[in-house]
């Protein structure tokens, strides 16, 4: 009998427990139904801004939370990020029709997205389609104690962004995402941003880009028919250049350094092949650089301009190589023109050395005898010396074509290395200072 009474008590308590939760679920469902009925008493109410009066716009607070940078495409000018918008506003329609006691003092009530008014937010610079943010899968939270409604949709933004690749691979990009309360003028909805920066507490990081700055602002702009509020969220990202430096910039610098060494390659060991290979490699590297750059004329990348100049230098090296090879293989019976001989003496500083030798010889003709200065064969008083210095003329050595070719090889080797070094410093130092 005692066991039967205990079992009966347990069944009664279980029934009360289940009944209480069932009633709570019924009550919560009934609350949502009552809130929905408020809007469905007039089906157009979901499109009516729930402000307190027609003279005061409804303040909609916006905060940007960023989770990740999915990618930045400089060629197409697009940036994709994963974010969530934290929106909040005061719904006077619900607050004036539902008392806190009517919903059993609930702290908050979730309401389906399609059953309550939400701001018609549109990303203006969306590259896919201009659609309203939000879907039926979202729930909106209503706080009955103060009438505040919060909404936190998580979305993937893919907006247009004008890239600036001047200092690639040390470039910084600033992209903006502009939202508008579509079809609501300044007298209906006012967008408010409480914090000027984004919330990056849940940001996962990116292997290519680093966030350097975020900022947010609102402004009033004209949509053609009326003035409305716009919310602009800007983000500045900086490229992490190590991968590009190792796999692209370093090969370009090494190739530019060894390009001039083709003048030192013997003509019998494939000098022309060496030069053509360098030229084709520059063409390949230029195409590789262009894969990272947009198809725009301005602003141009400094690195791309540098590669184009090095490719032009390589083409000039090929032309000069063909010219010097003809000199190497010129017939020995052909005489070297005088102007070319003078040029060779100039680059070898032979003329300077000959002038210096003549000056030293003239000074050597003057000797001192007993404190008097005498000249070749005669002193200043007309006394003839015992020793007369006769000038001996040296035979002029004839210049051959192989010597001309070797001299020009050394000259062009030094010239091209110097010019390439100057251009490398001129173009690459700004990139280094940007880093």
TrEMBL record:
Ranges for domain Neurotransmitter-gated ion-channel ligand-binding: 47-241
UniProt-annotated location(s): Membrane
Membrane topology: Multi-pass membrane protein
Any one GO molecular function term: transmembrane signaling receptor activity
Annotated InterPro entries: Neur_chan_lig-bd (IPR006202), Neur_chan_lig-bd_sf (IPR036734), Neur_channel (IPR006201), Neuro-gated_channel_TM_sf (IPR036719), Neuro_actylchol_rec (IPR038050), Neurotrans-gated_channel_TM (IPR006029)
Keyword Membrane: yes
Protein name: Uncharacterized protein
GO CC list: membrane
Source taxon at top rank: Eukaryota
Keyword field: Membrane, Signal, Transmembrane, Transmembrane helix
TM regions (residue ranges): 242-265, 272-290, 302-325, 410-429
Residues of the signal peptide: 1-22
Record SUPFAM superfamilies: Neurotransmitter-gated ion-channel transmembrane pore (SSF90112), Nicotinic receptor ligand binding domain-like (SSF63712)
Signal found in the keyword field: yes
Domain annotation Neurotransmitter-gated ion-channel transmembrane: ranges: 249-364
UniProt source species: Potamilus streckersoni
């Amino acid at each position: 009998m005692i066991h039967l009474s205990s079992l009966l008590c347990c069944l009664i308590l279980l029934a009360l427990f289940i009944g209480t939760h069932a009633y709570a679920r019924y009550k919560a469902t009934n609350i949502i139904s009552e809130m929905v009925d408020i809007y469905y008493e007039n089906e157009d109410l979901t499109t009516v801004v729930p402000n307190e009066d027609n003279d005061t716009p409804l303040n909609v607070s916006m905060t940007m939370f960023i989770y990740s940078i999915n990618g930045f495409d400089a060629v197409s000018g697009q940036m994709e990020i994963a974010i969530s918008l934290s929106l909040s506003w005061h719904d006077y329609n619900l607050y004036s029709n539902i008392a806190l006691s009517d919903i059993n003092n609930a702290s908050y009530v979730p309401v389906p997205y399609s059953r309550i008014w939400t701001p018609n937010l549109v990303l203006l610079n969306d590259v896919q389609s201009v659609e309203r943010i939000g879907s039926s899968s979202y729930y909106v939270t209503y706080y009955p104690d103060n009438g505040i409604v919060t909404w936190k949709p998580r979305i993937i933004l893919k907006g247009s962004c004008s890239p600036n690749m001047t200092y690639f691979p040390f470039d910084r990009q600033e992209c903006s995402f502009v939202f508008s309360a579509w079809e609501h003028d300044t007298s209906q909805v006012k967008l408010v941003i409480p914090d000027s920066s984004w919330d990056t507490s849940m940001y996962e990081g990116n292997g290519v880009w680093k966030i350097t700055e975020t900022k947010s602002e609102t402004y009033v702009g004209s949509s053609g028919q009326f003035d409305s509020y716009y919310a602009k969220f800007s983000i500045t990202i900086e490229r992490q250049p190590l991968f590009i430096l190792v796999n692209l910039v370093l090969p370009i610098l090494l190739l530019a350094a060894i390009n001039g060494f083709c003048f030192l390659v013997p003509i019998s060991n494939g000098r022309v092949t060496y030069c053509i290979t360098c030229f084709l490699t520059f063409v390949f590297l230029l195409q590789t650089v262009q894969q990272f750059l947009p198809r725009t004329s301005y602003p141009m990348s400094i690195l791309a301009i540098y590669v184009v100049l090095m490719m032009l230098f390589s083409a000039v090296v090929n032309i000069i190589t063909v010219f010097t090879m003809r000199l190497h293989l010129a017939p020995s019976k052909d005489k070297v023109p005088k102007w070319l001989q003078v040029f060779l003496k100039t680059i070898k500083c032979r003329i300077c050395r000959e002038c210096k030798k003549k000056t030293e010889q003239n000074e050597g003709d003057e000797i001192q005898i007993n404190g008097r200065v005498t000249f070749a064969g005669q002193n200043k008083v007309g006394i003839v010396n015992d020793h007369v210095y006769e000038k001996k003329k040296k035979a002029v050595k004839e210049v051959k074509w192989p010597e001309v070719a070797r001299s020009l090889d050394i000259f062009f080797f030094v010239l091209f290395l110097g010019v390439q070094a100057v251009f490398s410093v001129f173009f690459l130092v700004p990139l280094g200072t940007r880093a």
